[in-house]
Design goal:
The chain is an alpha/beta fold and about 220 residues long. The chain is built from 4 helices and 18 strands. A hairpin with a 2-residue loop joins β8 and β9. About 40% of the residues lie in helices and about 20% in strands. The model has no long low-confidence stretch (mean pLDDT about 95).
């Protein structure tokens, strides 16, 4: 990861001030209404957290809409790198800690991914962790197994880049598998448990792949 400098941190703090302000207003507005209500303090805290996260997602999506991250390599000192340094603060400080707790129910995973920018079809669920969701598209009726990782960014020897991950319809990704940047997985394909799909790998429709790195096993 590139070093996060002072100015991106300052911009992130300015952006997050709005969600914090909304959370404070919600807390103040609920003070009198929850007084005397059983578990009123718990309800108030829950609603404040929801308000903060909802506004944070809104600010985050607005930031990416106005200053989108480019696909491909981000040269050192480039405008794309600066946008990334602000963007990564949202993930390091807010989204990643929450998602790694695995407290979000699986039936809500599709809505969470869409809220964070992914394109996800009906009937698709994830029990894993999807980084950089705006670089990820997943078709319908696809299942991402427990603790699997989708990683659209690539980092090595000072290089930093983003390449989309595209997953088709009716795909099964085995638990604890890793799908790297630029991978394409066709309709009806299966990736075996604990497999590593390396960068820019193309898995065809109805193919079974497994292993580290993942290799073609057979057609379904």
């Amino acid at each position: 990861m590139r070093k996060v400098t002072f100015l991106p941190i300052l911009i992130f703090q300015a952006l997050i001030a709005l969600p914090l302000g909304v959370a404070v207003l919600v807390a103040c507005a609920l003070n009198d209404r929850v007084a005397g209500v059983p578990l009123g303090g718990v309800i108030q805290a829950f609603l404040v957290v929801i308000a903060f996260l909802a506004m944070t997602v809104l600010v985050y999506r607005s930031y990416l809409r106005i200053w989108p991250l480019p696909e491909g390599e981000l040269p050192v000192g480039s405008q794309g790198e600066f946008r990334y340094l602000v963007y990564i603060m949202f993930w390091l400080m807010i989204f990643l800690p929450i998602l790694r707790l695995s407290i979000i129910p699986v039936p809500l995973s599709r809505l969470v991914l869409i809220a964070l920018g992914a394109r996800v079809g009906e009937g698709t669920y994830s029990s894993g962790l999807v980084f950089d969701p705006h670089f990820v598209s997943i078709g319908t009726d696809t299942q991402l197994g427990i603790d699997c990782l989708l990683i659209p960014h690539a980092q090595a020897a000072g290089m930093l880049a983003h390449y989309p991950i595209r997953i088709g319809d009716r795909v099964t990704i085995g638990g604890r598998s890793v799908i790297m940047a630029g991978a394409t997985i066709g309709d009806g394909a299966v990736v075996g448990f604990c497999s590593l799909v390396t960068r820019d790998t193309h898995i065809g429709p109805n193919e079974i792949w497994a292993g580290v790195p993942a290799r073609f096993i057979r057609k379904i």
